[in-house]
Predict the structure.
Amino acid sequence: MSGLRRLLAAGAGVALLMGGCAAASHLRALQPAHMPASPPITIPSSGTEMQRGIDLDAYTYPGQDIAAAARADIAYITSLHADAVLISFPFFVNGQHGSRVYATSATPAPAQIAVIVRDAQRAELRVSLRPLLDEKSIGTARRRWAPVSPTVWFQSYQQFLTPYAVMADRLNVPVFVVGTELTRFSRSRHWAVLDAELRMRYHGTLACVDNWDAPHGTGNCGPGTQQLIDAYHPLLPPLTSTWDAYDQTLEPGTVEAEVGIAAAPDAYSQPYVTHWPITQLDVAVQAQWFSAACHAAAAEHLGGIYFWTLGLSQEPSGPTLADQGNWADSAGARAISTCFAALERSRG
């Protein structure tokens, strides 16, 4: 642990915001940033390598150059010393009291997701895929929502998911998430039927992502699914010890599918809040949060950690008052890279 403490102390120096890229094109803008060297740390051996991951939130728009965006995003992700990417793609429901799933122009088609997957695989990144219910379409948080008709919802959802599962199987994607933060109906009997249908077409691991404040354990999204967690538990300084304490409540090998925070002064107490009524950002909050989370995940033998989020075709400019959770090309990105580089070295 002393090595971890030393790296955390070094990570505190990443609070200065990196200069944004001035290039006009997204491809030029997402060039790998220079990351400062960090001292070696000792990572306790767990017998397995921890996934060093970045979340990619793949909203699309008509006419978008998916291939160029994918190349640029994957290049940036690998520049952070990541070895894994979790690609989320949105789907929609017809209102808070609706039950039917549908895609929009913001939803990438399976062939478009395949372009991103192939680029990630060429970069030797581990790939996971995740459909993510768009909260604006239901007017509330996913964890508070449930369909009026579960039967209609699951039939509609299966129809939507199947082409993506077929594509994932064809490209040998190891993990396919079937549900994320759907707390109110995560134990529905319908999940077992959906999972059985998907397993006829997809032969990798089906997974379920729980919210941090939901019951975490086997059985969510159907029996036999791997349980991941979106880790937005409120924590207060000293972050090193509080992240350690939180991770000790998780099963060894758990993958934290999302770790994110706004660049706002009070965000530690409510890391799930994406927008704060502030007039000045505090980028040190992101850097310190990410450093502590990353090193605690390694120390407590978690299976992986993924930082939320990089947008498809998003130019890396760091947090803004309008987008306080953005960390690309900022102090937060430098903290991620510093820890991931140390983990990479520790694995030889």
About this structure: Residues 1-47 have pLDDT under 50 and may be disordered. The first helix runs from residue 2 to 11. Residues 99 and 148 are 6 Å apart (CA to CA). The first strand starts at residue 51 and ends at 57.
